[in-house]
Amino acid sequence: MSMRAAMCADLGRYLRGSRSRGALIRALMQQYGLQATLVYRFGRELKRRRWQFWWWPLTLPGWVVYGPVALFMRTAYGIRLALSADIGPGLYVGHFGGIELVNCTLGRGCSIGEQNRVGARTERSGPRIGERVWLGGHVTITGNVSVGDGATIGAGARVTADVPARALLMGNPARVMSRDYDNSAIL
Amino acid sequence: MSMWSALRADAAVFRRLRYPRGGAWSKLGLWLRPGGMRILFAQRLGHELRSRRAAGARWTPALLAMRLLEHFATYSVVVFAKSDVLSSIAIEPGVYLGDAGHLIIGAQRIGSGTMIHHRVTIGMNLADQGKPTIGANVWIGPGTVIYGNIMLGDGATVLPGTVLTKSIPAGAVVQGNPARVVRMGFDNSVLRASIDCHIDATSLPASNAAARPA
Fold first, then answer.
1. If one looks up domain B3-192 in CATH, what number appears?
2. Domain total for chain A?
3. Where do the structural domains in chain B lie, given as residue ranges?
4. B83 touches chain A (CB under 8 A)
5. Is A166 contained in some domain?
6. pTM for the whole structure
7. B193 in contact with A at a CB cutoff of 8 Å?
8. How far is A77 from chain B (nearest CA, A)?
């Protein structure tokens, strides 16, 4: 998927069907998670064209721009979407502060919240998270675990084992509260 | 009560917690050191503006200047404290908010004398769930999540790392994820007298009823 299509999918999550220009400007100005996601998409595009030397006249200045802007997102808003994380299009970052996604795979249409930590820098193979997964605030997922499509991880949960699709998890350690929970209302 | 008298009450709380021995610099350091005081300033300014607009005030130059100041104060709170404390909350005077920030707070009401430490989330922005109401003299430890249409009684204690989704009565102590009540009728005035938060259920006094004179 191209960078542009992924960015449009991200933007669509924040606009929620609204088509007005004011809503677009408000989302770009006020949603810090959206800003960080767009910067991440740009960085991923640079990383994808890393060895395509015919792009270097454009990508080398691109890295110079990306570095400080990503540093600002990390220090000012506390949102670190590392380039080692493979995030599908349509990511929604609900709040800001203490968010770190490293060495992990997220499917399309996921929602994450504040104080989320997915994956660790020291692990070779990180968590694999499916599509349309909702993560509440203060969720930590580390280790070689997989989270099924449409799962819902309640606020403050600490996931250490594989999660079946469409499950609702809560607690520390996370326990399955419901086997079939529809998260389309909160996503 | 106006915004400034509420902020003066907050400043007294912060001064007592940060500088227990007083000192000449304690008043200045209150405003120079970043932290909860700035979050409270931005929130109270936004709340004042909201209530004036709700009362039917027109956009005068003074009100517009206030709006501009609120905008920059709120943004500096985002950047320097990573915090988002909604201006719709009715926060009573004399509240401590954690100096380390990372607060996402959307409660209905926060009572006076309440202490909220850093990395706390209160209230979730979901369609079917209401917002928590927090009583007076509540102590909320770091890393806590509180959500749902619940009520925290006066003098309740939420120990660090708790995820609380149910109402608790006055004087209760809760800990854990999911939260369990570990004490009842606990007097948290010792906790609220200090800025420290290294506490858990095992280091709490078993009961302060025994220590209280008959």
1. 2.160.10.10
2. 1
3. 3-192
4. yes
5. yes
6. 0.92
7. no
8. 6
